[in-house]
Amino acid sequence: MPLGVVLFEVLSGKQAVDSSLDEEHWGLVNWAQESIREDSCLHNNPKQRPTIAEVVACLESVLALQEKANYTLHPPGMKIFGNKVPMFLSSFIEDKSVGSKRSLDIYFGTIGGENRILRRFEFQTIIVATENFSETNKISAWGDGEIEAMYKGRLQNGQGVLIARHDSNSYYQEYKNEVSLLVQLEHENLLHLLGYSIGGTQVFLVYEFAVYASLDRLIKDHECTLLDWNKRNKIILGVARALLYLHQHGPFRIIHCGVNPENILLDESLDPKLSSFGFARCLAISEADCIKEKSVGGIPGYIAPEVYQTYRLSTKADVYSFGVLILVTITGCTVPNHYLYNSSGHMTFEEYVWTNWLDETSSDIIDPRIDVDSSSITRVIHIGLLCVQADPADRPTMEECFTGSEIKENVTLLKIAEEKVGRKRCLELYFETIGGEHKTLRRFEFGTINVATEKFSENNKISRWGSHDFIVYKFSFQGRLQNGQGVSIARHNSGSRSQDYKNEVALLVKLEHENLLKLLGYSIEGTQVFLIDEFAVCESLDHMLFDRGCTLLDWNKREKIILAVARVLVYLHQHDVIHGNVTPGIILLDESFDPKLSDFRHDNQLSTKDDVYKFGVLILETMTGYNIH
């Protein structure tokens, strides 16, 4: 309430109470409430007052246009204590029941400010563009209730457009909400609002988009063969980009509140556009990520459980809807709110996908129209499962979804699934999928490891080293690999600092450099995990440096090692990776003294300058042979 009073004091130049006027006009607030009616900061019902974010958006548009209006427009205004308030301010707060054509014209003509003017189309133009709203041009009666129908059309200049028909009195606030947002948003995967038209009691919003179909229509049409895996993956990524923009990179933060296949529109190239912002909610940049909202639109099955249960609305609600969208797009299931049945009985859609993933039968639930066996599908299913977790705190952000952060993605899934199938099976799933479709890790039987290391003999041991407190052994597979290549193995305890070696695996499957270890495969036995690297290790640098009896490290070899470590650190930093543990103990050497950097330490508090500092210490230790540690 105080903000509304202040705004009117600023606009009128008068105090909140002015006893010099007639008694009935003493109170600025009383007069304003009677004159301007609803949808203002002064509304008696707090729930009917706009949020600060909505006020800011409104004022920015008003102030931008006011500068222009002072010199050119001179619109009619209404008197408040002798001063004029521009008529376009009243268009934000008019009487909904009136829905007058004039007030709507003013609203649409001013909402975009001077930088975004919406084009007004004659109603006859809309009729011609849609061929008199023919059924052939009708996309669907869709949206979350606020849209009567959607039509594709073509203007006289040949431009393809999308036209949404609304009743000017029904869902009044919803379509105005959409307009007020879209005039300020700009993204390749969001609809671009071109203009509007008014015909009788109907309002038509015209979008600059040659729509082909909605995603749900193509999924439901079992005769449609257009949605191969590449197309579906492109659609999922496009929606992810749009949501990331709304949540983090737009002019203000927005919760869409309507992510589902009906609201994903596709052009003839099947490039997606996210639509239907009628129930979207704004968050100020500094505002808490969660708000209370009792009235939220959406389709059952796509609405996050916390929205139903506690009315708590956050960006994680969009993440949940996005997760369901992923699973529906991959499976072709169009009724995610219904129970499904298998040999285990009835279960929710999410439980059904979870069960098949854990049973390694994900291929059974993939839409048969996807004629490809790709591990990238499995990875996207993983992301979808992460997004539909019951607790919002466990869901990733859209940034984590879009970047496909393997560390976050797979480790989180592992944590969830351990309760369902046990640690060993979860570790196997982790290693099987962490490399995506481009890097498959080989699973070695423990017997192979046992024989190759001569039962982990002391003769084959390199050292116990590194931040993870694991043991490295050197050994040869003695012809088990076709090329006879030597390899090294690191033994870990699966329950001791498991996050560290999982992070290392996630990095090594993505990175490739001649001075980084190349991960070949893994083995699991009991509580122990063995990582096998494609590298015939001879010794670690610290053993050679600090062994006073070793004379192999002349200056040329030391310089070669230092330069190689410098090169690999440059590579890591270019890929936004901080090693965090550059010491002689984690630099492994082969018989030619070519170094390999190993043992990554995952610490969000570190920076590249920490690596630089430790590299400087490494140089001093390598040159002097003195163990600073």
Which key terms come to mind for this protein?
single chain, 629 residues, alpha+beta, Transferase(Phosphotransferase), domain 1, 5 domains, six-stranded mixed beta sheet, elongated
How do you describe this structure in short?
38% of the residues lie in helices and 17% in strands. With 629 residues, it is of the alpha+beta class. Residues 64-99, 404-411, 464-470 and 472-482 have low confidence and may be disordered.
Describe the 3D structure.
The chain is 38% helix and 17% strand. With 629 residues, it is α+β, with helices and mostly antiparallel strands. It folds into five domains: 2-110, no CATH class; 118-211, 2-Layer Sandwich (Phosphorylase Kinase, domain 1), CATH 3.30.200.20; 231-404, Transferase(Phosphotransferase) domain 1 (Transferase(Phosphotransferase), domain 1), CATH 1.10.510.10; 442-533, Phosphorylase Kinase, domain 1 (2-Layer Sandwich); 539-624, Orthogonal Bundle (Transferase(Phosphotransferase), domain 1), CATH 1.10.510. It has a six-stranded mixed sheet, sandwiched between helices. Helix 11 runs antiparallel to helix 13 and helix 13 packs across helix 15 (406-421). It is elongated and about 95 Å long. Residues 64-99, 404-411, 464-470 and 472-482 have low confidence and may be disordered.
